[in-house]
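Practice record 12: protein with nicotinamide-adenine-dinucleotide.
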Amino acid sequence: MEHAFDGQVALVTGGARGQGRAHALAFAERGADVVLCDRLDGSPHVDYPLATEEDLAETVRMVEATGRRVLALRADTADRGAMEHVVTSAEAEFGRIDIAVANAGVSIPSPVQSMSSGRWDEAIGTNLTGVFNTIATVAPGMIARGYGRIVTVSSMLGRSGGPNMAAYAASKWGVIGLTKSSALDLADHGITVNAVAPGNISTPMIHNHALYSHLRPDLDNPTPEDVAPVFESLHAQPVPWLEPFEVSRVVLFLASRDSAHISGIVVPIDAGTAARVT
Ligand code: NAD
């Protein structure tokens, strides 16, 4: 049976868990070989655990179960040299990268007046510089082959502001400027660059004690039921969060051959919340 991504290679940054894992699996189920990278280290500036080696190994197992090949590497997207190594290794192993999903990201809530430089730098380093490093390192090979699909991950906070979210929102607004400008730079080379802007997505980035406590400071140990109404209030439709596969569907379309003449756009997957902003 033919699949939409047969013979293609997809790189997913931050692919050990969450949305990245869902995207990796979705590509593999449709015929692509997959390159995963993840930093696999906590950060003193991030208040919840990032992915572990076990998470990455589990994603590798899930991709291999589809029959596709997978290359999984430890790499911090904020480190350009590390991303160059990922791309060189992927091209040596599979000969090409056709699709890159710049998905790795961190959420770092702090009021702007008390945000440390370390927390600011971490948010910008991973969420914005990491996306730049991903685009800059995959683009030369895509240009040489005359084909590429790059999907970046912004957020509904890339189109609005939020209390405590100055660094995160700045990084995600930045992703949109980076995406649109890159789309123009790469337009002559058969490469499209588009962004997705998710709302609340059910992953460890939102389901963790630190964020729950931010949202319900009145409770010692808030539960998912306690925070669900707060998450729901951030969406237009009455749902607290969406599942990662809902984002994957859009990523798949933007990464497909069918989207050849769609570039520089931002697609919200945010339960209607985009209706509130211009
Ligand atoms: P997640 O925390 O489950 O996954 C993020 C992954 O990125 C983790 O595996 C983590 O280890 C990895 N990572 C973090 N920093 C990295 C770095 N510098 N280098 C390499 N890997 C790194 O969260 P998620 O929800 O799957 O997040 C995926 C993307 O979606 C992020 O860019 C996030 O900002 C964005 N997003 C998430 C939500 C949400 O509600 N979950 C909403 C809007 C946008």
